[in-house]
Amino acid sequence: MAAPQDVHVRICNQEIVKFDLEVKALIQDIRDCSGPLSALTELNSKVKEKFQQLRHRIQELEQSAKEQDRESEKQVLLQEVENHKKQMLSNQTSWRKANLTCKIAIDNLEKAELLRGGDLLRQRKTTKESLAQTSSAITESLMGISRMMSQQVQQSEEAMQTLVNSSRTILDANEEFKSMSGTIQLGRKLITKYNRRELTDKLLIFLALALFLATVLYIVKKRLFPFL
């Protein structure tokens, strides 16, 4: 089973490596930073915090090295501490260079924005007349559109009145059609009734004729063939 002191040394080394990688990543972010200055300030605050944590862990590792019983293990740990300190100094140098590069880039961007702003002012001065002309043309166009819309409204009112008159005509025609429909239905009933009566009359005539013929045949039979 590992001694508590060895576990502490291992944890310190792991933390030192982690903080070292985080510092390197933040320094790269500073190199890539193009502004604004508040973003650079925020990144520098994070780097300072990581350096403090890294320095604290290196000090803990150095203290653990001094507390080692074996001289050989003590020297190995002290050599690791020295290497970590050198790496931290190298990171600090890279940090300063990254800040310098970033500030130069931000200054150049600010100068370019100032120049661009001056060009915009000149463009605004030269385009005032064209904007006034454009505004006048737009006003004329809007007035023309307003007149056109007024004409369209008037035409729509006339069309609506025509539709109202047409609706009245259609309603009158519908009433007349209803009246004619009633007359037609009455005529149809009368024709049907007349057809039925005609059929009845024909049937009665046929029966009367048949009766008459039967009577004639009976008389002829009695006269010609009395023995039958």
TrEMBL record:
Major subcellular location class: endoplasmic reticulum
Pfam family name, one: Sec20
GO biological process: retrograde vesicle-mediated transport, Golgi to endoplasmic reticulum
Gene Ontology cellular-component terms listed: endoplasmic reticulum membrane; SNARE complex
Entry membrane topology: Single-pass type IV membrane protein
Domain Sec20 C-terminal: 134-224
Residue ranges the record marks as coiled coil: 37-71
Single annotated GO MF: SNAP receptor activity
Keywords: Coiled coil, Endoplasmic reticulum, ER-Golgi transport, Membrane, Transmembrane, Transmembrane helix, Transport
CDD domains the UniProt entry points to: SNARE_SEC20
InterPro entries reported for this sequence: Sec20, Sec20_C
Localization annotation: Endoplasmic reticulum membrane
Regions crossing the membrane: 203-220
Family: Belongs to the SEC20 family.
Protein name (Swiss-Prot/TrEMBL): BCL2 interacting protein 1
Species lineage: Eukaryota, Metazoa, Chordata, Craniata, Vertebrata
